[in-house]
Amino acid sequence: MDLEYFLKERTRFILYYYQTAALGFLKIISAIENEKEPYIPPCSEDGEPPFLGEWLEAKTGINFVGYAALSMLSSSLKLYLEEWTVRVERPEHKFNRRHKKGWFYAYRQIWTEVGIKGARLS
Asked: Is this structure's pTM higher than 0.85?
């Protein structure tokens, strides 16, 4: 498997997913803010903005789509790094892929061992 191709295709899809899934929520927010059908505010003097509940739900929907996309991106990066490490692993090294500071920190240690610039830990 071409690792670079895998990562690029996966991230391309994640961006597509986010943009497509968030579109419906963005349309709702835009319709509410621009007072378009079906969100034309009724005459009211209760002080609360009209369609506040719907607006908040749409904002929450965008956040949830973002969380899902971020989770997919994190998983994709971890899969990429796991496969990359297997390919560069040498018999004299036994890379530790776990660290109390998290998996990304552990991979930065591996990069330092292999000699990838910019991976130094501070």
From this structure: no
